Amino acid sequence: MKITEIRTRVVEWRGHTVPPQPHFCTNPMDLLNLPSDSMASFRFHGWLIVEVFTDSGHVGIGNAALAPRVAKQIIDVYLKPILLGRDPWDVEPLWQHMYRNTMAFGRKGIGMAAISAVDIALWDALGKAVKQPVFKLLGGRTKQRIPVYASRLYSQPLEALAAEAEAYKSQGYRAMKLRFGWGPVDGAAGMERNLELVKTVRQVIGYEIDLMADAYMGWTLDYARRMIPLLEPHRLRWLEEPVIPDDIAGYAALKSFGRIPIAGGEHEFTSFGFRDLLEARAVDVVQFDTNRVGGITQARKVAALADSFSVPVVPHAGQMHNFHVVMASYNSPMAEFFPIVDVEIGNELFWYIFEGEPTPENGFIDLRDDLPGLGIRIREDALSNFDVIERTEDAAQGAHR
Questions:
Q1: Which domain covers residue 21, as residue numbers?
Q2: Lateral strand order in the sheet of 59-64
Q3: d(CA 207, CA 201)
Q4: Most buried residue, 30, 50, 222, 327, by most Cβ within 10 Å?
Q5: What's the rounded Cα separation, in Å, for the pair 174 and 169?
Q6: Which helix (H) or strand (E) holds 386?
Q7: In DSSP terms, which residues pair with 148 in a beta bridge?
């Protein structure tokens, strides 16, 4: 089997979008206290679709959401030329070739997102070639079903927040995650607003349902140190991304408190990055995203590495490229799940672009044993709701605006 073509398309949503709300979710831009919408650069209203074609007729599908126009150019210019004519079964040498070929500007961020998208497509093609789901290629089924947690509960009026939490409870979820809306520039009053969010959800779900909370890189070490004692009575399963990802020492300091488990890794890349996190004893929960960390080839390495440190892996985002990794690992107790809603942040766009995502029943999803590869298809008919960019030069023009 040989790779004959690699097709990349950027799809940019042009349908209805829910407008941003104040204090919707903390993020790294909050600290600058700018008058503009601080969440603007953290919305994902564009997506990259990658298709790897083979001479056997099998087509693998991959994707990336980080800076899709730039990721497309990296694939078209730097990755595609070294992959055409190669055997897709050689996933390790192919990954190393892509990684080392882009070393000067890749390693992390957009370069690794591009590699991830191609690597995911390769694994999808391999599963289709042998008529097996990807989780079988990774070691097999480790659980009958995957527990998933409802991941949404953005900062909003408390009555609406309570109603949303009640809906997830009634749907059978045994865990859910909320987002904080206030950070360091909001002072002590903002701390009280954050506590109100947690208290509101706890009053609805009680203590027999797990609750996690996400600061999305929007706090500082000092602010997190002040917040954690206030949050401790509410028994959070974890506090997610309390500081920026480069502050490994800050993560380690917060974890050393031992008061609330610390989760992170959504914005970390490759086994090298996670080796640093784990050796620093910086996180209690590893949260790589397979379409960022380096694809499935790296995700399985990071999962094994975390297992050796007895640190559980709960990947960022749902989506099939993560679900298959979770299914194949005893060290992944559950998965994240983004409910189907109108387009807002952009995580939900996966539902609009691809078919085949499982929907939860009483807080669980399952992966079919008889569905080869990742089990997804591109919703070609639905792409009419998007601007589709396929020519490399068109993507370059948009990326340089």
A1: 3-131+377-399
A2: 59-64, 46-54, 3-13, 386-389
A3: 10
A4: 50
A5: 7
A6: strand 386-389
A7: 335
- Per-residue pLDDT of 266-288, as tens digits, reads 999 999 999 999 999 999 999 99
Q: Where are the beta strands (DSSP E) in 74-173?
A: 146-151
Tokens (6 digits) for 133:
């789901």
> What is the tens place of the pLDDT at every residue in 217-226?
999 999 999 9
- Total number of domains in the chain: 2
Read off the tokens for 132: 């097996």
Q: Tell whether 370 is covered by a domain.
A: no
Do 186 and 220 lie in one domain? The reply is yes
Taking only the tens place, the pLDDT of each residue in 221-265 is 999 999 999 999 999 999 999 999 999 999 999 999 999 999 999
- How many whole angstroms separate alpha carbon 328 and alpha carbon 141? 5
Q: What is the DSSP letter of 137?
A: H
What is the DSSP secondary-structure string of 166-211?
Answer: HHHHHTT-SEEEEE----GGGHHHHHHHHHHHHHHHHHHHTTSSEE
Does 331 map to a domain?
yes
CA-closest candidate to residue 368, choices 356, 384, 382 = 356
* Phi, psi (deg, nearest 5) at residue 49: -105, 130
Q: Which residues are catalytic?
A: 316
Give pLDDT, residue 41: 83
Q: HSE-up of 72 (CA within 13 Å, CB side)?
A: 28
167, 261: one domain: yes
Pick from 261, 169, 176: nearest CA to 210? 176
Same domain assignment for residues 305 and 174: yes
Render pLDDT for 302-320 as a digit per residue (tens, 0 to 9): 999 999 999 999 999 989 9
Same structural domain for residues 80 and 216?
Answer: no
Asked whether residue 179 is assigned to any structural domain, the reply reads yes
Same domain, 104 and 148: no
* pTM of this structure: 0.96
User: 236 with 212, same domain?
Assistant: yes
Supply φ then ψ for residue 175, to 5 degrees: -160, 150
pLDDT digit string (tens) for 85-106? 999 999 999 999 999 999 999 9
